[in-house]
Amino acid sequence: MAKGTTAKTSKKTKTAKVQPRPVHKLLIELLMLNAGRISEVIEREGQEIFGQANLLSNEEITDYSLEFLELFASLLHAGERIDRRGPEYRALREFFNGFSKRIRARGASLDEFVRYIQFLQRVFLENLDASEDVSFEDARAVIILLGSLFNDIILDIFHIYLEEKERTIQAQQEELRQTSAPVTEIWDGVLTLPIIGTLDSSRAMTVMERLLGRIERDRAKAVVMDVTGVSSIDTQVSHHLVQMIRAISLMGAEPILTGIRPDIARSLTSLNIDLGRVTTRSTLAEGLKEAFRRLGVHVGAAEAAG
Length: 306
Hints:
Layout: H1 2-15, H2 23-51, H3 58-77, H4 87-105, H5 110-130, H6 136-180, E1 184-187, E2 190-196, H7 201-218, E3 222-229, H8 235-250, E4 254-258, H9 262-270, E5 279-281, H10 284-295
């Protein structure tokens, strides 16, 4: 009877496990015990990354470090599970977004900011490793939580950065569309349209709409289209050119095409583009002379004063 009792007791002892502490409580304890040291290390590293490049002052670095620790502590106190839709997580994410925008506005690269985020994660892991009463299960849970949290923040920063980059590129492309094909009235009834670069479908529609609007507004009788700045002519570009030439004629103006180089002439010939009914001139100056001639305007060289 006694032997059976001993065997059962031993079996219970073998199956008993120590329950790991909740991760958020473990990190809260870590913050409370090492708050001063963690804050000091974070400030020092912030000065190393941002201070030497004069991106942030020491006071700003201190403020950011303290604000991060406060927001991180609030997130941990919010509950055992991190709610990525909760106000505490949103506040932490907005903090990092605002932080990254400020330093990037001052010339910092995204790499520097990501390096700082990774350092914050490493600070907690190093302090965790220094704690003697942390079990393997506790350490594993903390590593998973910190990795997930900081990786999500880095991804948020990347998404916002890419969205801003995309908006900047689109704005630059729109500005380029506006400036690379300006419609100018150089004489009463005469418009010029120098085309520079590549003429894709989107840009062609923008240029055509602006050009037709100017023809109607200025009651233009002649439009000189100069393609000297067009790098190459393919089927798509030639199609857009022909469309614009036809649209100019439909609006009652005379299209004059200038700036056709030998290589562009060969390309148009190989593409079977018929420009036989289109008035062409070698240069913009010659095209303007032709436009003036058709309007009955005589242009001559100015005589030198005696």
